[in-house]
Amino acid sequence: MTNQAIIVKNLNKKFGDQTAVNQLSFTVKRGSIFGLLGHNGAGKSTTIDCILGTKSCQAEEILLLGKDPRKQRKALFQRVGVQFQESAFQGQLKVKEICEITHSLYQQPINWEKGLLEFGLETKKNAFIQTLSGGEKQKLCILLAAMGNPEIIFLDELTTGLDPMARREVWRYLKLLQERGVTIFLTSHYMDEVEILCDEILIIKAGQEIERGTVAEVVARSGQKSMDEAFIKLIGEER
């Protein structure tokens, strides 16, 4: 069994004449937390869609857990978790109902009631989703992504709009998942989050790689004092 949970070689994606992802290649180690960074429109979400096989693309190779997601999506469904977008929820559903529905999709799901407890959502079990706060909805999104007991989880802008305490609760849960051997692939605009969570990062601009490595390596090569300063320097502008 390879030590690489994700392998991407020469990924390209165009929308008409516009190149969204350009010759992107990287690997993600099993059990690590990997951050894909870039400004809005840099190609992060498109890259995730291509890796998951939900968008067509050109690539020399894309492998998730040794399988091609473009050809073996059904086989990967039980092993890969993807963060639901809040807008995908029906507000008239209760928390326990969305948990029960999602739980039923998987062969070896986690105990969702224990998950609610770990996230501090146990008192919201009978609440309608539309009554949850932003932080509560985001934590529910991550719990649902983890419902199938996956080996890899993809999280896109997982803590955008959360207050500091809610963000730290999310970080704690992600570290708990990592301790259980889960590989986490995330995007984020918060560099403090990146510094705390990520084992390795890849920064892209206009769909192309501009830097990669550990946070310490990227900061050192940038000549800056923090990841926040390094990121701004590397992408060339605030956007």
UniProtKB/TrEMBL annotation:
A GO MF label: ATP binding
Ranges of residues in domain ABC transporter: 6-231
Listed transmembrane segments: none
Pfam family name, one: ABC_tran
Entry-linked PROSITE patterns: ABC_TRANSPORTER_1 (PS00211), ABC_TRANSPORTER_2 (PS50893)
Protein name: ABC-2 type transport system ATP-binding protein
Keywords, comma-separated and alphabetical: ATP-binding, Nucleotide-binding, Transport
Gene3D superfamilies the UniProt entry points to: P-loop containing nucleotide triphosphate hydrolases
Family that this chain belongs to: Belongs to the ABC transporter superfamily.
